[in-house]
Specification:
Layout (H helix, E strand, L loop, with lengths): L4 H18 L30 E9 L3 H10 L8 H4 L3 H6 L2 E6 L21 H9 L3 E3 L9 H15 L2 E3 L5 H5 L2 E5 L2 E9 L20 H13 L4 E7 L10 H12 L1 E2 L2 E2 L3 E5 L7 E4 L2 E4 L4 E3 L16 E10 L9 E13 L4 E4 L7 H14 L10 E2 L2
Parallel strand pairs: 1-2, 1-13, 2-3, 3-4, 6-7, 7-10, 10-12, 15-17
Antiparallel strand pairs: 1-14, 5-6, 8-9, 11-12, 14-15, 15-16
Helix pairs in contact: 5-6
């Protein structure tokens, strides 16, 4: 499914401007690609044609067995249909200029078999639903990326390519791993990098040490600088990190987040936004060194969740969507600024098998409790004072 007409028209305008400047025709790329050289006239600072953009990003897509069964029921006995599951957040996602998700699991063969926790193997139709919802791409580096070894990783990225989703954080070849996943949003060239703290002890496939990006401060900064040098106006970093079931960011999140946001080249930050996943519950947004960090967006799609004590924990079905509006810099050498920071509280309603936008629907005790819990977590480190608001 395509984005709204205004977005498609804007994208075509950018491509035509770039083509005219280069004296050749422009074409989009369906997979990771190295950025071209310096800024084009359409993205140059202070240019009349420079245009800002909106980004939305969401948390873990984690199809447990019950979620897979729900998709089978929604398909009416003919495969799996995950599109109804995302229908409640589709208006938010599809309206953005750039929309990113986090695909935590890998895909099985067409027709199965499929599995949930602890070694996930999801139906590839999940990717079809993500695309139909309006996502442009996903981070794919998680502790479950190697649940199916190299074959599972390959099947997942192959399906992404088939439906037209880009991906960052895992790779099938050394060349793909060395590339930079890029998007055009407004008049900006946007780079997306992704990393995970671990792969649950699964080793990298033989001869493929580059298969999954591991969370190492030096590598993240080096990759961000390389993306910037290659022409990225905005650099986004997704990190699968944190302590499960802990609302407060842990020491690694705090220290790494501080280091990454402090890193600069020529007085310009190397990273423009950090998007966190993994904890399974909503965590705070915080502005650190002038850069927004989302420590954890929680789960977007998941089945019944149990915490470490073995108790059913509804927080495992709560999450947030981050929405950030970027504006072009006024002068060369300056960063693209986040002029508006918002969050959308959401909940996976297990009784209906649907993701609910709680900013629009919070009637009833269950929804109201979820909305309050997400809001409390998101604002827990004082983000309101820096302008973070709930999206309307």
């Amino acid at each position: 499914m395509t984005k709204p007409t205004r977005r498609t028209a804007a994208l075509l305008s950018v491509l035509l401007l770039s083509a005219a400047a280069a004296g050749c025709s422009a074409a989009g790329q369906s997979g990771p690609a190295r950025l071209a050289g310096g800024p084009t006239p359409s993205s140059a600072a202070g240019s009349p044609s420079a245009r800002g953009f909106t980004l939305v990003a969401s948390g873990d897509v984690l199809p447990h067995t019950s979620v897979i069964q729900r998709a089978a029921n929604d398909a009416g006995g003919d495969g799996y249909d995950f599109k109804p599951m995302f229908s409640g957040v589709k208006p938010v996602v599809s309206a953005a200029d750039l929309a990113l998700c986090h695909m935590e699991t890998i895909y099985g063969e067409e027709g199965g078999p499929f599995s949930g926790y602890p070694a996930f193997k999801s139906p590839p139709e999940v990717a079809d639903a993500l695309k139909a919802t309006g996502y442009d791409g996903c981070s794919t580096a998680s502790n479950h990326t190697l649940d199916g070894g190299g074959d599972g990783l390959r099947r997942t990225l192959d399906r992404f390519d088939k439906v037209g989703l880009k991906h960052a954080g895992s790779a099938r070849t050394a060349a793909e791993a060395a590339g930079v996943t890029t998007y055009r949003a407004g008049s900006a060239k946007v780079a997306h990098l992704a990393y995970t703290y671990d792969t649950n002890g699964y080793p990298m496939p033989d001869g493929q040490p580059w298969a999954v990006n591991l969370m190492k401060q030096e590598k993240i900064i080096a990759d961000a600088r390389a993306a910037r040098k290659a022409g990225a106006d905005v650099v986004l970093v997704s990190v699968h990190w944190g302590t499960e079931w802990q609302t407060e960011p842990d020491e690694t999140q705090l220290s790494l987040g501080k280091a990454l946001t402090a890193s600069q080249t020529g007085g310009r930050p190397d990273i423009d936004l950090i998007l966190g996943t993994h904890a399974h519950i909503p965590q705070a947004y915080e502005k650190v060194n002038g850069t927004w960090i989302v420590y954890g967006m929680g789960d977007q799609v998941a089945g019944e969740m149990f915490n470490y004590s073995g108790a059913r924990d509804m927080r495992g079905n709560y999450g947030s969507i981050g929405r950030f509006t970027f504006a072009p810099p006024a002068a060369a050498g300056q960063r693209w600024q986040v002029t508006k920071a918002e969050f959308v509280p959401q909940m996976m309603d297990l009784s209906t098998g649907r993701v609910v936008n709680l900013a629009l629907h919070s009637e009833g005790e269950e929804y109201e409790t979820a909305k309050e819990a997400v809001t409390e977590a998101v604002l827990g480190r004082g983000a309101a004072k820096d302008g973070l608001t709930m999206a309307k």
